[in-house]
Amino acid sequence: MLPEKVRLMAHCLITRPTEFVDRVAGLLDRLTDHSQESTTHPFPPDAVWSFLSDALRIDVESILREPTLLQTEAMLRSRIDSIPSDAVFRPGNCAEPLLGRVAYVVCRALRPTTVLETGVAYGSSTTYLLAALGANRYGQLHSVDLPSILDPQARLVGQIIPDALRSRWKLYLGASRRILPSVLKAIGSVDVFLHDSLHTNRNMRAEFTAVTPYLGRPSVVLSDDVHFNHAFEDWARETARDWAQVRQITRSGALGIAVCGADPNNGDGH
Q1: What residues does 247 pair with on adjacent strands?
Q2: Long-range contacts of 152-157 (CB under 8 A, 24+ apart)
Q3: Distances (CA, A) of 164 to 64, 135, 160, 167, 168
Q4: Residue 35 burial (10 A CB sphere; 0-12, 13-18, 19+)
Q5: CB atoms within 10 A of CB 23
Q6: Contact 165, 68 (CB under 8 A)
Q7: How far apart are CA 255 and CA 261, in angstroms?
Q8: Which one-letter DSSP state was computed for residue 36?
Q9: Is the CB of residue 96 less than 8 Å from the CB of residue 224?
Q10: pTM
């Protein structure tokens, strides 16, 4: 596998030099990121629902019982189970179920006009988001993703997303460090943001900083794997109205959730 990656990187240098620079920058970022892990104690997974109920003033339980969510999860389980163990993206690269459910609940609660995510892979979290927008019959999802060097044509990106959901989806290929600012300028405002790309301190801080001026009021920011460093908790303390870190169900990591701007019911921020 390593010789194939080297060959593809060499080809990338010749044919797509800007992408090559971004890939090398990402590799160096991972190799030099010696950040300390987050010190925030995460909630147990079940506590996330009462947090969202209080923060967003919603009936979470009714959303979790929606047939659309149950059907989406059954479909995703089937498609993920069919992924070969030696695939470019392993099944473990798919979104942790708690992240998907939270993303669905948030989008159903806020009925966002614009959702933005970084990191797609096969598209499991993307599918949760699009299923919620489909149930809302409203809203658009914009996704930023740098495909694996082993998938230079991006054929695997979003592969498991059902065709019926794709009309509300726009995909931008490239490293978030380069293209996220231009995407934000183009879409103008963000109601829900999900970070699930390169989980280094530098990249996470850059993404949160870039998206902050564009956040709607109210809005929600979600971040996978916040336990790796202090980027999410430092940003949330300065920016969010309510925030939490929640222990994931099938992994040892934590999910970050931040509610920003005014209270969705009474308009009072704090």
Answers
A1: 254
A2: 152/8, 152/11, 152/12, 156/87, 156/88, 156/89, 156/121, 156/122, 157/120, 157/121, 157/122, 157/123
A3: 21, 12, 12, 7, 9
A4: middle
A5: 18
A6: no
A7: 20
A8: P
A9: yes
A10: 0.94
- Tokens 């596998």 identify what position? 1
Structural tokens at position 175: 């490293």
The one-letter amino acid code at 17 reads P
For 34-87, write each residue's pLDDT tens digit. Answer: 999 998 989 999 999 999 999 999 999 999 999 999 999 999 999 998 888 778
Question: Under DSSP, is residue 88 helix (H, G, I), strand (E, B) or coil?
Answer: coil
Q: How many residues would you count in the chain? A: 270
Taking only the tens place, the pLDDT of each residue in 200-233 is: 999 999 999 999 999 998 999 999 999 999 999 9
Distance CA 60, CA 109 (A): 8
Q: Residues with Cβ < 8 Å from 107, sequence gap 6 or more? A: 115, 129, 132, 133, 136, 139, 192
The domains found in the chain, sorted by start residue, are 43-260 (3.40.50.150)
